[in-house]
Design goal:
It is built from four helices and no strands. The chain is an all-alpha fold and 56 residues long. The protein has one domain. The protein is globular and about 35 Å long. The N and C termini lie far apart (32 Å).
Length: 56
Amino acid sequence: MAGISTSSVTKLNKNMNVSTEILEKVCRALNCDTSDIMEMTEDIPGNIEYMHEKTK
């Protein structure tokens, strides 16, 4: 439907980084804006994005 790969869907499900191209495809498929599908958070301990960055 959105023309994105299963690996990109997996990344989205795991709150991992995806390209802005992927976000654009999702938004076009859902007829929405990026603010409807994501939010910006600070890198704080306990935050899944923070923990992901620390394991790189």
